[in-house]
Amino acid sequence: MKCLLVLVLLFVSSISADYPLYIDELEDLVSWDDKRQLEILDDDDFTPRSQLKTQFDAILSRQSPAVQSAYQSKVAREENERKSEEQYKRMRYQARGLDSVYQQILSIDGDLSLSENQANQQVVLPLLSLISFSLADFPLYIEELADIVNWEDERILERLEEDYYTPRFEIQAKVKEILRRQSPALQAAYRALVANKENTRTARVAHMLRQHEMRGTSDVFRRILEVQADLRLSQNDAKKLMRDLKKML
């Protein structure tokens, strides 16, 4: 990603949705009754995860050695993938001089004394103060989503952000599709983040408009805003039009 922007809820789903309990990995290997119990545990966002782990371990311990071995193999694969993605994220944070923030998020994510809901909330609060607002992300706000989704969705979003020739309404539709498949907590956090950015943008635009009114260039500035918001245009076309208009300011 191009800008030095740290985003909220990085760990709601970015490393592994199953970490640190890995309940899903056992569901397909057990009886129907045990599967139902595991689903209840998996959906419980309010019980401390240490208590969930105790109940989970009891279910795992009564499985056959073959099932336990198969489960451990699945977890090992998940852990390898998680660690690879964790290393990737670590490098990105280090490049921004925010390694301590990353370590804090890791600590929260792995703290079994917290419920899933508490962990999500504790990740959000310390990161909100790190967010810098800009006009560059308007109107698609792709980067705001890219750092809080899983590895695969992040790659898709990066490609969308670098697509300079597709009409932006088509890109926006794909971003919305990716957003829809995220967890409710992540969707709510993303929308709140975008709303905050929009509020800040509105205030900045109002300030800039007053400046252009004093200069007698408000009509050109309004036209720039219209071009910026016109989703029928590709990124490339919008930039060309805005560049030509800025020459008139």
Automatic annotation (TrEMBL):
Which stretch is the leader sequence? 1-17
Keywords tagged on the record? Signal
Output the superkingdom of the source species. Answer: Eukaryota
This one is known as Uncharacterized protein
Q: Which organism is it from?
A: Pristionchus mayeri
